[in-house]
Amino acid sequence: MNMVQNKKSHGKFCHGISAAVLKWIAVLSMLTDHFAVAVYQYLPGRSAGVYHALRGIGRIAFPIYCFLLAEGFFHTKSVWRYLRNLLLFALLSEIPFNMAVFGHIFYLKGQNVYFTLALGLCAMLLLKRFEGFSAPRLLAQAAVAAVFLLLGQQLEVDYHWKGIAYIILFYYLKNFQLKQGVSALIGAAAFAVYEKEAVFAFLPIYFYNGERGRQPKYLFYAIYPLHLAVFGILRLWLM
Q1: Contact, 155 vs 180, CB < 8 A?
Q2: I need a labelling partner for 210 at 20 to 30 A (CA). Which of 77, 171, 225, 231 fits?
Q3: Which pLDDT belongs to residue 85?
């Protein structure tokens, strides 16, 4: 995903964690989660305790992706290219997602997380368009948020309306230019309401240093459909 261009923007955290490192943390968490869902629970001798532990590790990924999406929105050179990439990989990921998560090649009652991120990016585009504190602009922002929350629920994207809500939350935390620690604390509190394990994502987020880091151009996009395809094939075979 297109990420941050700003340099050493968080002062004392300039030697902390880059966006690239945050992405790798999210990727490893996501792989763990999807392995549990698609493969581990169908293995002979599986343990419920191990399964839930793997799923708990997986809760770290989504908050980091939401955070980085908001960072990318404010710092990418082209939001439209960013949106194009999200939609392209959403389409490429849908069948692998269906196979890995639902055990079917075609399944209409759940869409992969790239659709969630794409909707969130569109929401941020419109929220930025109506930025301001006058009554009409605040009403417009509320309407935008409501529409995209509804879309997230009706389209049954991954994390449904909650996923869009968290992306919007990170948009405002970034837009208000709060200190890194304050943003991490607010984000952790918000996610704790939904998934308590997700609060651990905010430790690396707290130490984010504003640097992009070294990133292969499309590797982080491609990991998602590729690993889902592998896990999906394994799930269908095990079933």
Answers
A1: no
A2: 225
A3: 97
